[in-house]
Amino acid sequence: MKLIHVRRNPGETVISPPGRLSLLHVIPHMAKVLFAWLLLALPLWSSAQQAAGQVTVTGSVKDSSGAMLPGVTVLVAGVTGKGTTTNTDGRFVLDVRPNATLQFTLMGFETISVPLAGRTTVDVVLREKVSQLTDVVITAYGKSSSGKPSWERLRPSIPKT
Question: Could you tell me which residues come within 8 angstroms of residue 74 by beta carbon, excluding any fewer than 6 positions away?
Fold first, then answer.
């Protein structure tokens, strides 16, 4: 087999068989192409986000007495999977479109929908949801006259050997 000596840079010699490209020839070219694609793609991606018109909305959620509410779910209406929850101080930060509508939900409180209409700060007061219980179900375990719990009487007995 005949070997070819190829000089890429002064003082550097690469030996490869004829008709084949060695990895030493291909890797630098691949790295240049990948780097060029990254340089083109990153500005396009960031400009696509700006073209989408995203704004950062901040705010807080309180109850009717003025106490901050942690764990409130803040969703963007009509957008699946877009939302956040309030932190321990009742505050939230969310990137949305300027004309979006935010929904605030927390168990035991009424759900509120707030259209942004260009605002970037939203402070919400949630009202408690008053509901009346109609049925109460009580489940209890008792003891039988043998002193064992009733569920234990149902277990099959295994004779001792």
Answer: 61, 83, 84, 85, 86, 92, 94, 102, 103, 104
Question: Would you list the DSSP string of 3-37?
Answer: -EEEESSTT-EEEE-TT---HHHHHHHHHHHHHHH
Side-by-side strand order, sheet with 91-96: 91-96, 55-63, 121-126
Q: How far is CA 24 from CA 21, 33, 53, in A?
A: 8, 15, 45
The reported pTM is 0.53
pLDDT digits (tens, 9 = 90+) for 3-55: 555 556 666 655 555 555 555 566 676 777 777 766 676 666 555 555 567 88
Q: Which amino acid is at 97?
A: R
